[in-house]
Amino acid sequence: MFDFLKKLFSQTDNSQLIEAINNKPFLVDVRTPGEYSSGSVNEAVNIPLDKLPDQINKFRNKRNVIVFCRSGARSSRAKRILNQNGINNVINGGSWQNVNEMINQRKTGG
Fold first, then answer.
1. What's the domain range around 35?
2. Among this protein's residues, is 11 annotated catalytic?
3. What three-state secondary structure class fits 49?
């Protein structure tokens, strides 16, 4: 069961995430405003998952999009919603901490 859930909610491997980070992505935290205000990735915008369908135009013409949340489940759904609306350059970054760590590693050269 764990393997099934891990595959279902697994994020993109970090090499793809790092490549996207290196190309000035549109960073989107899909958690609730309350969760977002408790901490997120610098320069990320908050577009909660339930508001995403009404905000599709914000994603058009973005070269790279990274979506993330608390665990990767909501960002997985966000990626699917965006793909269904023709936004295909989307990476599920998983948790906001994972995305933040990858950005910080890039900055420090680690």
1. 2-108
2. no
3. helix
